[in-house]
Amino acid sequence: MNKAVIGLGFGDEGKGKVTSYLCSKDRDAMVVRYSGGQQAGHQVMINDQQHVFSNFGSGTLQGIPTYWSEYCTFDPVGFLNEWKVLLEKGYNTPVMHVHRDSPVTTPYDMHWNVGVEKLYSHGTCGVGVGQTHQRQQDFYSITVKDLFHPTVLRIKLKELSNHYYDMVLDMEEFLEACDTVIRDHFFMVDKIPSGFNYIFEGSQGLLLDQDIGFFPHVTRSNVGTKNISYHNPETFLVTRAYQTRHGNGAMTNEKLVHHIKDNPYEQNFDDGIQGEFRKTLLDIDLLQYAIDSDRGIDRSQSTLVITCLDLITDDYSLTIDGQKVKFPNEYEFVKFIQNKLDISRLLTGSSPLSEDLKTI
Fold this sequence. Notes:
single chain, three-stranded mixed sheet, 17 strands, 26% helix, 22% strand
């Protein structure tokens, strides 16, 4: 059966960890990136192996192939850099299939994205994903198929420079990366490859979905089931045991005292363009809203995954209906969340390893 890994919060829930776990159970799997793009930072740890995936699916360490769909932006420079890192770490050559209509992120998009973020502080990662989607909607289209036509690509890049008010940037690294990746590094396809069990790996949480989250602090993407509902996947709904948000935007419970430990494996830092990494108590009301807003989620066919439980061992607390509730132990804490969300199955885990997920 096909599976979808969907974050319930503002991102950073542990989607890479869950994707890797599901891949470990199915050698006939293919990871499908179906939303967002290269802004994902999905950390996977398997024994002493560790990698943060942005341009590849989170089953790559296990030899699982990736399909990069037309809903995802594609960054040739970032893709090539991550490819080199994976090989330097000694991993097998990744197998990547990229849809011909995947929008391509250029240095122009990244540069403009950073400038807009400095002006409006929307909470972007600064890697051009949102700007690429916006530019595509404005009909300045550059997609993966254009990489195979260098003359056309250069014409489109010139028009894109004009679109961004005659922006002047050195494009040689970008053009060299485009030439390298199409020659050696992926298969361009016009549909999802057949013969696999698909594991759909979401890019960000539902509370950042462009149709669900709190504008303007959202991603320009549909991160729930909208793009994949016709595959009828079983959903794995992921949340940390506490609430997080990286950068600006609405977030509840920040005035409440908590004792959440710092994650030694955290990939989020306060010194990036997104700004502060925030954390506080879990809010059941927000999780309910996220699930209710995605009509493709069938609670009876879903699994709730609660990660990072090791970071709240001395304070099992959350809020519901605006009121703080404290629990005496982990079991009562997680079963309360499962019952309130009315999810049929439950997996729990700690912060680092994908293998530690267990059924409760």
